[in-house]
């Protein structure tokens, strides 16, 4: 299902865009990228907390096994993305990995739930696969994926996030960040 962590390449761009720091409480929604989970858990360290959830129990369990094998503290579990099992304002950073516009739930409903578990002033980063264009599509070694019609900036803004913006589109990924309003 997943490439083995030791032989796969970590997307350093994804890790640096997430901006996790020592002591952060981090939630990763979507466990399809175990190397990202492992890297963010290592950044949060022993003084932080890293949780990862996925709607598929198999995917969440596999990500948990990889995190355990790599020696990082990361709690993984199966959860409905519109009913997360965490208390209000539990996290400093939430990373959405390929979940907006790809599941059975509306992006607005997922983002509303993310806003609930994110502390005021907390940051959300959506990382989505996007189509490559130009020479990258021709020579990039992978077939272009269809671009999603979803506008994550509008989704975040409609739910009440501020400073929603596209940070970058690189290496077939789109990074969108938003900050939860201080209330």
Spell out the blueprint of helices and strands:
Blueprint: H1 12-18, E1 25-29, H2 34-44, E2 49-54, H3 57-70, E3 75-78, E4 91-97, H4 107-117, E5 118-129, H5 134-139, H6 152-159, E6 161-170, E7 173-180
Parallel strand pairs: 1-2, 1-4, 2-3, 4-5
Antiparallel strand pairs: 5-7, 6-7
Strand content: 25-35%
Count the helices. How many?
6
Beta strands, count: 7
Could you spell the SSE succession in H and E letters? Answer: HEHEHEEHEHHEE
Mean pLDDT: 87
Question: Residue ranges: pLDDT <50 for 5 or more in a row?
Answer: 1-9, 142-148
- The end-to-end distance, rounded to whole angstroms, is 42 Å
CATH superfamily: Vaccinia Virus protein VP39
Strand arrangement, largest sheet?
Answer: 3-2-1-4-5-7-6
Q: Provide the helix percentage.
A: 25-40%
CATH top level is Alpha Beta
Largest sheet: 7 strands, mixed
Tell me the overall shape.
globular
Number of domains in the coordinates? 1
